[in-house]
Design brief:
Structural class: mainly alpha
Shape: globular
Largest sheet: 3 strands, antiparallel
Strand content: 5-15%
Number of helices: 8
Strand order of the largest sheet: 2-1-3
Number of strands: 5
Radius of gyration: 21 Å
Length: 204
């Protein structure tokens, strides 16, 4: 699927017109048609505030389907959401953050959509099938609407590892030349610390 076909599916004529969460969701559902470079080019054309809102809304929606007793899955999603939100926040100041965001979004989507990870038992007809984590979360949301009843068996060793990214603060970023002062950043950190009570004090 080329860009023109993808934009037609999303019902836009250029990527700058991707202004609504539903459009972003459609884009994410086409993850198999995306690679890191292609997604980077798309995300670079989006309004940064919209991008940040899309990421937050996406995780809020899919996390609604996490079973209450699945603490492991909740921690995984919370960790991934935190990192992606941080990358989206930094992406208007540092292109490396946007590149990392594209990489992590695609990697997460591949994991989320991987088939056969969850055993799903339809309690209405007792049929059993193996589905993705994404489909399992949809089943949980269907139950909340009283439109079905399922027993979901997630793998006991379910795991997901996400890298940690250390990007500079906006305070120390010089938009005129794209540079930052590491020494100034360290001085700012030191100024926040009371040597007798090493707790970061709140700025007002």
């Amino acid at each position: 699927m080329d860009d023109k076909e993808l934009m037609t599916l999303i019902e836009i004529e250029e990527w700058e017109q991707l202004n609504y969460y539903e459009q972003f969701l459609t884009l994410m559902e086409q993850y198999e048609a995306l690679d890191e470079e292609r997604l980077f080019n798309i995300l670079s054309k989006l309004d940064n505030d919209n991008l940040l809102s899309f990421i937050e809304s996406y995780f809020e929606e899919i996390m609604m389907g996490i079973p209450d007793d699945n603490i492991t899955l909740y921690k995984i999603f919370s960790s991934v959401k935190g990192v992606l939100v941080d990358l989206a926040s930094a992406s208007n100041r540092k292109s490396a953050a946007l590149d990392s965001l594209a990489y992590e979004l695609i990697r997460f989507q591949n994991w989320l959509m991987e088939d056969d990870l969850v055993e799903c038992i339809n309690l209405n007809d007792e049929s059993v099938k193996r589905i993705s984590i994404y489909d399992a979360l949809i089943c949980t949301r269907i139950e909340l609407l009283n439109e079905g009843k399922y027993q979901l068996v997630f793998p006991e060793d379910i795991d997901y590892t996400i890298e940690e990214y250390d990007y500079i603060s906006e305070t120390d970023y010089d938009e005129t030349d794209g540079s930052y002062d590491e020494e100034e950043d360290e001085d700012l950190y030191d100024a926040m610390i009371d040597p007798e009570n090493p707790v970061i004090e709140e700025f007002e």
